[in-house]
Amino acid sequence: MKIEIKVPSAGESVSEATVSQILKPSGSFVKADEEILELETEKVNQVVYSPGEGELTLSVQLDDVVTIGQVVGHVDTDKKGAASEAAPPSTPAPAPESAPESAPAPARAVEEKKAPAPAADKPSAREMAPDFIAKMQEEPKTSPPPLAPTQEVAKAPPSALKARDDEGATTRKRMSGLRKTIAKRLVAAKNETAMLTTFNEVDMSNIMEIRSREQEGFVKRNGVKLGFMSFFVKAAVAALKEYPEVNSIIDGEEIVTYLTQDICIAVSTEKGLMVPVMRGCDEKNFGQIETEIGAYAKRAREGSLSIDDMKGGSFTITNGGVFGSMLSTPILNPPQSAILGMHTIVKRPVVIKDQIVIRPIMYLALSYDHRVVDGREAIQFLVHMKGSLEEPTRMLIDL
Question: Is 374 among the residues known to form the active site?
Fold first, then answer.
């Protein structure tokens, strides 16, 4: 029986996909639920699994564009035993059993190995010491004239050499559907919003002291480390409640303000930036936030995030500090009206109570859509986050 392989649904807004990888070639034998194709959509990559066990036949090739529900091949379950039946004859029989009489005696075999190959045969890669010394002594007489390499280079057309210098060394690869979508969204964010960025700095001393003091107990209770991101998520939740304009989007001629704090966490992968959504962050404790962030990051790098994982979200946090960024202006994640950029922590001299002291400082950047958020609300939002992070007890930490 032949079981059809169809392109699965990848979300309501996705109508087509591109064959990005063929994991099992046509004609191979596959097991049920074995990965056979990887499809790339404008949002996520999706793996197609074998519907049964048997011989695989594909009707698509690499880079083909397919539609949702399209038949891309079939599995012939009647041929599932062919592989095991054909396997034994493919094993070569041992040489002594197939031709015992023609096998040379041990002494003769040794002599044959020592016998030099005829001059017409392929020369050996090994060279004995006496031959090498004799060759070195004869080299001055037999070596080619020193001008030969220069003359050979001179034969190359000057125009070809010039073209090589002008063009340089380059490589080309097809832009993925995900990368195309990211490019379109970033350009749209720049062209269709009144984007502005405001900055502030945060003294991370208290948070770093809490992490150091509570890390061991936190890991025992939650199975994950206490990172910085959970502090920023909780601080963002408190600031979004205080300044709901930042938690809004434009829908036509209306401003829609979210009553829940569904925060997107940007995750960098080899295929591009993924932004999964953590829903109901106001109801999650630090352990739940860190666990969910770790799970999303792992799934993003494995390419197993679904459309639902990245649907919605009212505010985004991105951390360029993990790559060493000191300061940046993050681009909005449409249709959201604000995004917070974290950066690397650096010890800097600061003035506290008229004294110059060294403190671990992080620069924060809040990019916002000025059509929705006024400068006053944006600055106050960032100041509110600064206060929560510098005095973490304000966030009701449940360590």
Answer: yes
Strand-pair partners of 249: 256, 336
* Residues 98/50, Cβ–Cβ less than 8 Å: no
**Among 173, 178, 174, residue whose Cα is nearest residue 14:** 178
From 165, 370, 384, 398, active-site residue = 370
Cα separation of 211 and 226, whole Å? 6
Length of the chain measured in residues: 399
**What span, in angstroms and rounded, lies between the C-alpha atoms of 24 and 292?**
33
pLDDT tens digits along 7-51: 887 655 567 788 878 888 888 889 888 888 888 776 667 788 888
pLDDT digits (tens, 9 = 90+) for 107-123: 444 444 444 444 444 44
Alpha-carbon span 299 to 306, nearest angstrom:
9
Q: Catalytic residue among 33, 78, 308, 374, which?
A: 374
Which sequence spans correspond to the domains of the chain? 2-81, 195-395
Q: Give CA 374 to chain center in angstroms.
A: 35
Whether 195-395 and 2-81 are alike in CATH topology: the answer is no
Q: Give mean pLDDT, residues 243-269.
A: 92
Decide if domain 195-395 falls under CATH 3.40.50.720.
no
366 pLDDT band, cuts 50/70/90, is very high
> Which residues have a Cβ under 8 Å from the Cβ of 168 and sit 6 or more positions away?
none
Q: What is the pLDDT of residue 108?
A: 47
Query: Which CATH fold would you assign to the domain 2-81?
Result: OB fold (Dihydrolipoamide Acetyltransferase, E2P) (2.40.50)
- Residue 343 annotated to the active site: no
- Gap between the Cα atoms of 314 and 258, Å rounded: 7
Strands 71-76 and 2-6, by their bridges, are: antiparallel
- Bridge partner list, 347: 360
Whole-structure pTM value: 0.64
Assigned token pair, 309: 């994982």
Residue 171: other Cβ atoms inside 10 A:
4
Tokens 């890669």 found at: 125
Q: State the Cα–Cα distance between residues 2 and 57, nearest whole angstrom.
A: 10
Residues 6+ apart with CB under 8 A from 301: 267, 269, 270
d(C-alpha 381, C-alpha 6), whole Å: 49
Burial class (CB in 10 A: 0-12, 13-18, 19+), 76: middle
